[in-house]
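Lab notebook: predicted structure, single chain.

Context: the supervisor wants predicted structures on file for every construct in the current expression panel, including those that have not yet been purified. This is the next one on the list. No modifications to the sequence; it matches the entry in the shared construct table.
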Amino acid sequence: MPEKEGWNFDLDFLQRPEIFIVVLGVKSLVRSLYSNMRENHKVINKDNRLMNTEVAEFFEKVVQVNRVSKKTKGGDKRSLSVLVVVGDKKGKVGVGLGKAAEVQSAVRKATSYAKKHMIEVALKGRTIPHTILVKNGAAKVFLKPAPIGTGVIAGGAVRVVVEAAGIHDIVSKILGTKNQASNVYATLEALGRLKNIKEGK
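Prediction complete. Output recorded below exactly as produced.
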């Protein structure tokens, strides 16, 4: 029976030394690439864990977003103004105002400013050490310490600031304007004025 074309294979070439060297070289190259990929994957995971830990350390809340329009020679220039409250819930809190053409850029600027200008808040356990009344422009905010289990009895703007500072029991009242930005700054000023009262004095 005649042999068909294409069915005859000469396997002797596989026994040549140069073929063996090429196979070993490819194998070592694959191992090297696989090892590098694993190392890079470990580094990326480590960086992501560090970033997640850093983000988790701070409480961030966007309080207000306003559209700002500025008339220029070339026409109206529109941007966004964002007010952000940042705190570690352990006695530190800050407020930042960021302006940009996009919301994400404005939030990033406001958050960065707030983290750089955080203030220390005097705490007494889960509440504040004493009653305080602060007037800042048209805003007027009243803060009063509360016993354990009371919770945070406060309006939207005041609640965000006191929760970011780590206060769990407090009673507050907004006596002036209802503008959120004004009340945020008034609350921040009130918390900054708090002082620890020593017993017997």
